[in-house]
Amino acid sequence: MSYAGIDYGRIDKTNRDPVTGIHYGCISQHSVLQAWADSSEPEYGEQTCPKCGNAVVEYDSDEHGDYHCSCGCADYACTDCELVWNSCDCFPEEPLGYSYDAEGYHLVDCLDSGIMVLKSPYYTHAQFCSPCVPGAGNLDSPMLEGVKTYCLGHDWFDGGKAPYPVYRVDNNQEVRS
After folding, report:
1. pLDDT of 18-47, one tens digit each?
2. Radius of gyration of the chain from Cα atoms?
3. pTM for this one?
């Protein structure tokens, strides 16, 4: 395919690195499912009071010793409700999302089953994503004439070879699998 698509983020430079100008990449989790499942970490957000929803602080017996505690634990305290909570009560049961921050990558899950490559030591060229992720490059639709897009390296893929050419951000050299 030779049509790069529409840059829905061209006016405000949405979904691109403000320092390098490289577009963020989007790829289906299914394209790298095992590597993503093995490497990503769940994100639960900030601790909140299960009663009022406000932020909690670490429990301090001197400061919160007279707060009511019905569970016999004391991990966090809500200064608004004056209650003490166990840490498992202050986080949601299910993660809010998943991320990966290592080896020069910053990856987060996006939409229902995608991965957004926000930082990478590598880039490739790809078509623009649909309006769902304006300005980003679609790593499931690589294209030599496409937009410069952060990507995943060869080691993320079964068989050790990415379905697109991989270049180093620091020197623009192609990385062979």
Report:
1. 999 999 999 999 999 999 999 999 999 999
2. 22
3. 0.82
